[in-house]
Write a structure and sequence with these properties.
- With 515 residues, this protein is mainly beta.
- The protein folds into four domains: 35-179 and 298-321, 3-Layer(aba) Sandwich (Collagenase (Catalytic Domain)); 181-296, no CATH class; 332-420, Immunoglobulin-like (Sandwich), CATH 2.60.40; 426-514, Immunoglobulin-like (Sandwich).
- It has six helices and 30 strands.
- The chain has helices spanning 37-44, 77-91, 110-113, 118-128, 168-176, 299-310, and strands at 2-5, 57-67, 96-100, 105-108, 114-115, 134-139, 141-142, 147-150, 154-158, 207-211, 223-230, 270-271, 277-278, 332-334, 340-342, 346-350, 358-367, 370-379, 383-387, 394-402, 415-420, 426-428, 431-437, 440-441, 446-453, 457-465, 470-478, 481-488, 495-503, 506-514.
- The longest helix has 15 residues, at 77-91.
C-alpha cells in the first residue's frame, strides 16, 4: 500500500462540480470498494465463521429521507415501500430480511440533499445516524452517483435510482455487508486516476491500482490511500486473492454501466492477462450491469454477508422476532366501482387490516385506456381525504397495508368511480321538475320529493354526505306526470347533505341541511 500525505479536503478525486439528478446523469456507484481486513480474514478460512444459512437474519434499518430547506422534495413514502420490497426480494436468496426501526426520519437540508462529495455525505450521516442500525439516506444527488456506502457511516441513495425496478439499494447494502465489486481495482481503470487507457481487445495487466481514500473502515482526512490488486484470470488460478477474492464471481473488468444480452451476459468481450477472451456475468447485483440484468448474489458472497452480520455487525441482530404480515389486502368501502361521487372534498375509506401499521395507496385519473397518478397517500387511519378532483372524470384507487417488517403486500381490489358536480341541480332527461321539502330538517324526520316526469322510468333515491358517502337509498318507480313520495330520514349527524334521484338518463340533487 502506498500512503502519501498532503491530501487537502479541496482535492477530491471523485468530486463533481455539476449537480446531477437524473439517473442517466449519475454514476452507477460511488463506492470505491476494497477487500477489508475483515473480508480477507474471512476469505482465508470461511469455515471458521458462522453463517447459519438456514436461519433468517433480521436486520434493522433507520431510514432518513432528505429534502430541501423548505421541507419539500422528499422521497415518496410509496416509493420507499417499493424500494424496501425490492431490497428484501433481492436478499431473500441470502435469508436476510430488513425491517425499519423507529419512525421514518425527515431531514430538511438542501446542502445534504444535493451534496457534491462523499465527505459532505459523511457529515450528514455523523450528524443523524442512529446506533445499532444500518443507516440509509435517500437524497436527490449523492455526490454524482446513484449511491455509495461509507463503511464507517452509512449508505446514500439517489431517489432517481431507487424505483420499483432499481437495485441500487441492494448493491450498496452488499457493500455495507463486506462485498466489493467483482471488478475490484478497475474502478479507475488500470491506474487509480484513469490516466492509463486500456483496450479490452488487449490482454489486461497482471495488476491494477485503485484509490479508496474515503472508503476504508475509518475516515482518514490527511492521507491518500492507493492500493494494488491482482487482475483475476479466467482459469481461476488467482481467484482467491485477485479482485474481490470470491472464486464464484468470474472475471469482470467493466467499470461502467453496461447492458447485457438475453442470457444476462456482457456484450463487451474482455481479455485476461493470459490473453483469454471472456464475457462477464450480468446477473451479479454487485456488478455494474443495468438493473434489468441483475438478480443474484453468488453463494460465496452470501456466505460473506451472513458471516459479516453474525461477526462484525452482531450489534444489529438484537431483534430476531419478526411481527406477522398484515392479514390480507384492505377491503374498499367507499367509493366503490361505478359510484358517482361529489368531486369536492373526497374521502376514501376501507376496512382495517389486522397486523397493519399503516396504509399506502394511489389514486389515478383514467382516460383513453391509460392513466396517470394524481394522488399518492400514506396514513395510519382507515380513511384519507384527498381533497377535490376534476368534475365529470373517471378515477381509480387502491390501497395496501404494511408494517415495519412487511412492504410487499397485495393491493386492494381496484375501484373505479366517477366524479360529479353536486353543488348544482343536475339533470335527468325526461324530468321537468324536481324539489325536496323541507330543505331544513331534523334528523329522523320525514321529507318529501316532488317529481314531474314526461314518461315512466325506474329511479333510485339516495341521501349523500358532502364527501359523497351514501347513507340511505331506495328504489323508486317513476310514473309519468306529477308524483310525490315521502321518506323517513335516517338518523344523521347535523350537517349538509344531498338528496338525489338518478336513472339511466342522468342524476339530479338537492342540497339539504340537517339540524
Amino acid at each position: 500500500m502506498i500512503k502519501n500525505l498532503l491530501l487537502g479536503l479541496s482535492i477530491l478525486f471523485f468530486s463533481l462540480d455539476l449537480i446531477a439528478q437524473n439517473k442517466s446523469d449519475l454514476a452507477p456507484c460511488g463506492t470505491i470498494s476494497y477487500r477489508s481486513d475483515w473480508l480477507k480474514n474471512y476469505q482465508r478460512n470461511p469455515s471458521q465463521f458462522q453463517t447459519e444459512n438456514d436461519t433468517i437474519l433480521y436486520v434493522p434499518l433507520t431510514i432518513h429521507l432528505v429534502g430541501s430547506d423548505a421541507g419539500t422534495g422528499y422521497f415518496g413514502f410509496d416509493n420507499l415501500m417499493d424500494a424496501l420490497c425490492i431490497l428484501n426480494s433481492d436478499f431473500e436468496q441470502a435469508n436476510i430480511h430488513f425491517f425499519t426501526e423507529g419512525d421514518i426520519r425527515y431531514i430538511a437540508n438542501s446542502a445534504w440533499n444535493t451534496h457534491s462529495t462523499v465527505l459532505d455525505g459523511a457529515e450528514m450521516m455523523f450528524a443523524n445516524n442512529v446506533d445499532n442500525t444500518l443507516n440509509c439516506y435517500f437524497v436527490s444527488d449523492p455526490a454524482g452517483n446513484c449511491g455509495y456506502n461509507l463503511p464507517y457511516a452509512g449508505m446514500a441513495m439517489s431517489k432517481s435510482c431507487s424505483g420499483a425496478s432499481d437495485h441500487t439499494w441492494s448493491h450498496e447494502m452488499g457493500h455495507a455487508l463486506s462485498l466489493p465489486h467483482p471488478f475490484l481495482g478497475w474502478e479507475g481503470g488500470i491506474s487509480h486516476d484513469g490516466s492509463v487507457p486500456h483496450s479490452y481487445n488487449n490482454p489486461a495487466p497482471e495488476k491494477v491500482t485503485y484509490n479508496y481514500t474515503f472508503f476504508k473502515d475509518t475516515l482518514i482526512l490527511d492521507t491518500i490511500i492507493i492500493d494494488t490488486t491482482y487482475v483475476e484470470k479466467i482459469d481461476g488460478s488467482n481467484c482467491t486473492h485477485a479482485a474481490d477474492g470470491f472464486c464464484d464471481t468470474k472475471p469482470d473488468y467493466l467499470n461502467y454501466r453496461w447492458s447485457c444480452d438475453a442470457d444476462s451476459l456482457s456484450t463487451v468481450t474482455q481479455t485476461d492477462p493470459n490473453g483469454v477472451k471472456f464475457i462477464s456475468d450480468g446477473k451479479l447485483i454487485m456488478s455494474y450491469s443495468i438493473d434489468n440484468c441483475v438478480d443474484r448474489f453468488s453463494f460465496e458472497q452470501i456466505g460473506a454477508m451472513r458471516a459479516n452480520l453474525l461477526d462484525e455487525k452482531a450489534n444489529v441482530l438484537y431483534n430476531q422476532m419478526p411481527i406477522v404480515a398484515p392479514d390480507g389486502p384492505p377491503v374498499a368501502l367507499y367509493p366503490l366501482n361505478d359510484d358517482q361521487v361529489p368531486f369536492e372534498d373526497i374521502t376514501l375509506e376501507w376496512e382495517p387490516v389486522a397486523g397493519a401499521a399503516g396504509y399506502v395507496g394511489t389514486v389515478r385519473r383514467l382516460f383513453n385506456n391509460s392513466s396517470f397518478i394524481v394522488e399518492e397517500f400514506e396514513t395510519t387511519e382507515t380513511s384519507i381525504n384527498i381533497g377535490d378532483l376534476s368534475i365529470g372524470k373517471e378515477y381509480s384507487w387502491e390501497v395496501t397495508a404494511y408494517n415495519n417488517y412487511h412492504f410487499c403486500e397485495d393491493l386492494s381490489e381496484l375501484q373505479i368511480f366517477q366524479t360529479a358536480d353536486v353543488s348544482g341541480v343536475g339533470n335527468i332527461e325526461g324530468l321537468t321538475d324536481f324539489s325536496v321539502y323541507p330543505t331544513l330538517m331534523k334528523t329522523s324526520s320525514t321529507f318529501t320529493i316532488y317529481l314531474n316526469l314526461d314518461r315512466a322510468m325506474d329511479l333510485k333515491m339516495r341521501v349523500y354526505s358532502v364527501v359523497g358517502r351514501v347513507f340511505f337509498e331506495q328504489n323508486l318507480e317513476g310514473i309519468g306526470g306529477l308524483q310525490t313520495t315521502s321518506f323517513d330520514l335516517p338518523d344523521l349527524n347535523s350537517g349538509v347533505y344531498f338528496v338525489g334521484v338518478e336513472s339511466e338518463f342522468g342524476r339530479i340533487l338537492e342540497r339539504v341541511i340537517v339540524q
